[in-house]
Design brief:
- By secondary structure, the chain is α+β, with helices and mostly antiparallel strands.
- The protein contains 3 helices and 4 strands.
- Strand 2 and strand 3 form a beta hairpin.
- 15% of the residues are buried.
- It holds the Pfam family rve.
- InterPro entries: Integrase_cat-core, RNaseH-like_sf, RNaseH_sf, Transposase_IS3/IS150/IS904.
- This is Mobile element protein.
- GO terms for molecular function: nucleic acid binding.
Length: 129
């Protein structure tokens, strides 16, 4: 897209908008164990999470937090909020713990945005192993 000077207006609006999950290092940054190798075939071994900002029909913003399984592509947890706050993230993790088999200890991959670095999140992950 850069070589052709092609731009998608939807994403340009987000870049200039109010929400960005990147705020630098604000807490604990997890070790990179996947090194961008996203080819897991065993379900519940590698999960991915992110928060996405979406514009609603009434021109207000909503925030979607989801966790998906890399192998099956299944959505294991999905929450929507009017704010990308700790409640949204914790509700997503709580839903995940209800939807994965007992004793499973997956790797959860994120973009390491600010909400994935804070103590409440890293503590919850270590608590659930």
């Amino acid at each position: 897209m850069d070589e052709l000077n092609v731009q998608v207006s939807l994403y340009n609006r987000h870049r200039n908008g109010r929400y960005s999950s990147y705020k630098g290092t604000v807490g604990k940054v997890a070790r990179n164990v996947l090194h961008q190798h996203f080819n897991e075939t065993v379900p519940f071994k590698v999960l991915h999470t992110d928060v996405t900002q979406v514009r609603l029909a009434d021109t207000k913003w909503a925030y979607v937090s989801a966790i998906t399984d890399e192998a099956s592509k299944e959505v294991l947890a999905f929450q929507v909020s009017n704010s990308p706050n700790s409640k949204l993230i914790m509700d997503t993790l709580d839903e995940l713990t209800e939807n994965i088999p007992e004793g499973i200890k997956p790797i959860i991959h994120s973009d390491q945005g600010w909400h994935y670095q804070l103590n409440y999140y890293t503590y919850k992950l270590s608590e659930k192993k």
